[in-house]
Specification:
By secondary structure, the chain is α+β, with helices and mostly antiparallel strands. It contains four helices and 14 strands. A hairpin with a 5-residue loop joins strand 2 and strand 3. It is elongated and about 110 Å long.
Length: 275
Amino acid sequence: SFSEMIVGAFSDRIKKKKEHREMLRRDAAFVADESGATMPRDTFLSLQRLIGGGPFGLLPQNIMVRAFVVRGKNLRPLDPSGLCDPYLKLELQGTNKRFGRRTDMVKETLSPWFYKMFQFDTELPGCSQLQFKLFDWDRNGGDDLIGTNTVDLEDRWFSAMWQSDFAKMPPLEIRALTNPSAVGSQGDLELWVEMYEASDAVPKPLRISPPPIVDIEMRVVVFKARNMVNKDIGGQNDLFFKCSLVGIDHKQTRFGKMQETDTHYFAIDGKGSFN
C-alpha cells in the first residue's frame, strides 16, 4: 500500500543517514604516522591503538558515565561573612554535556554536602575531560569561581590498572580544587566516578542522600574523682565538673551546651564524689 511505501522509504532514509554518520566518524579518525614516530615501535603501536589510528585502532565505544559528588571540604571563603554559598557544575569539555544548577546552592557554609549524581553517555576515545566547577552564589549575580578539578575519563577507561582494580568498585576520591586567579588551596571535593560500556547490563546507580536526622539522648555519669590538684588553702577543694557537647554546625561555628555536677565541698586528698 501507499502508506507502507512511505514508511519503508522513511526507514531507508534513516538507515542511510546512520551509515553516513558512521562513515564520517571512521574517516575523521586521527591516523598516527609511524614513519615520523620518535619512540620505540611497541610504544607507538600501543599509543596508536589508544588514539584510534591505523588499521588496528580503536573505534569509539559508547560509555555510560556516572559522577557522584558527596561534599566539599575546607572551601575558601569568598563572602564578607567568612563563608560562601557554593553550588556545583559539571562539564564534559568539548561537548554540550553540562550539568548542575545555580538554584542548588548550599547556603552559608565552607563544608557543603551535595549528595549529587550526574549521568550521561559519551564515546571514548573522544572528548574525555570531565571538569567539576564550584561557584559561590551571589544575590546580584556575577557568581565567583571557587575552584575546579578535572578527571580524564579516557585515561581511566584505557588503564589496565583501573579496569582490574577500580572499575567494579571505584574509590572515593578527595580531589583538590584549584583556581588560576588565586593562590593556595581552594578546598576539596569528595567524589567517585563510575564508567560502564553502554551496551552492557549496567547496574542501577547507588542512591546517595543525606542521612536521616535522629534525636538521641546521651547520658554522662560522673561518680568520683581522684588525684585532683588542691587549689584551696589547707589542702582542700570544692570540686565540681562541667560537661559539654561541642560540635561544628554548617556555618563552621562551634556550639555546645554546658551542664554541671553538684559540688563536693571541702574535698581532701585530691578525691571527690558526686551524686
